[in-house]
Amino acid sequence: MRCLVLQHVCFEDLGVFAPVLREAGYTVRYVQAGVDSVTQDEWLAADLAVILGGPVGVGQEDVYPFLLEERKLARARLVSGRPLLGICLGAQLMAAALGARVYAGQGREIGWGGIELTGEGRSGPLGELADAPVLHWHGDTFDIPPGARRLAFTAITPNQAFSAGRGQLALQFHPEADAGRMETWLVGHCCELSASGFDPRGIREDALALGDGARAAGRAFLRRWLAEELSERTLP
Fold first, then answer.
1. How far, in Å, are 52, 118, 204, 228 from residue 123 at the CA level?
2. Per-residue CA distances from 73 to 15, 34, 199 (Å)
3. What SS3 state is found at 219?
4. Which residues make Cβ contacts (< 8 Å) with residue 92, sequence separation at least 6?
5. Model pLDDT for residues 175-209, shown as the tens digit of each residue
6. Is 190 a catalytic residue?
7. Which one of the listed residues 3, 12, 88, 138 is annotated catalytic?
8. Buried b / exposed e across 176-213, counting CB within 10 Å, b at 16+?
9. Residue 70 known to be catalytic
10. For the chain, what are the domain ranges?
11. Neighbours of 227 (CB within 10 A)
12. What secondary structure does DSSP assign to 63-83, as a single string?
């Protein structure tokens, strides 16, 4: 099985999800946004597509034109019913592709913390993250698209996750983040941290303290999501 991954910055990769996908029999190909090309046919043919996070915003299509093509790819995947996982920017692109508003949130949410789950979220694969730390790293947020189901929230971000259909999941937070590679995030986003007043030392300390639990929970979530949402699935 093939997993095609749209990536925006090198250190935001599949992280702790990668070994789970290998165990499940997926081969992974990364497509670098704005550099590599992918046809819509190839995008739709993949058994699973993933759009990862990045520091640009959905509304910056005039500055970063590749975002317009990514929104089209997200839309095509969603309309086709094919499995799609969006994380952070990827989740925002999914929301925009479904006609929902993407906009600046109440404030930047950066660091390790929990999420709250709706009843449906708790009863599904996200239930594996109910009492676990995840990495938050965003300033923008989205409205829940028409017909989608809200699954998670935090005090500062009312919409943290939604399902647009079986095998189509948008996550504002980062359950894929590998705390063992936290330094790549701290260096890669150093300007944002400085401008926003976040101390990388605290994020580093939390990664060391919470990393094992976050890693185990993230992998448990993905295993369950693959088993419940993608296994024995008749694809269009």
1. 25, 9, 32, 12
2. 23, 13, 36
3. helix
4. 57, 58, 86, 102, 140, 141, 142, 172
5. 999 999 999 999 999 999 999 999 999 999 999 99
6. no
7. 88
8. bbbbeebeebbeebeeebeeeebebeebeebbeebbee
9. no
10. 2-230
11. 12
12. TSTHHHHHHHHHHHHHHHT--
Per the annotation, the verdict on 176 as an active-site residue is yes
- Pick one of 3.40.50.880, 3.30.470.20, 3.40.50.720, 3.20.20.60 as the CATH number of 2-230: 3.40.50.880
Q: Which residue has the tokens 């095609």?
A: 4
Which position has the token pair 């946004």?
33
Q: What is the DSSP letter of 130?
A: T
Tokens encoding 226: 């693959």
Q: Is the entire prediction scored with pTM above 0.70? A: yes
Task: Name every residue whose Cβ is closer than 8 Å to that of residue 85 and which is 6 or more positions away in sequence.
Answer: 48, 49, 50, 51, 169, 171, 225
Q: Which of 70, 109, 128, 176 is catalytic?
A: 176
CB atoms inside a 10 Å sphere around CB 21: 20
Q: Alpha-carbon distance 178 to 157, whole Å?
A: 22
> pLDDT-derived band of residue 235, with 50, 70 and 90 as boundaries?
very low
Between CA 72 and CA 51 the distance in angstroms is 12
Residue whose tokens read 């994020």: 203
Q: Are residues 171 and 85 in contact, defined by beta-carbon separation less than 8 angstroms?
A: yes
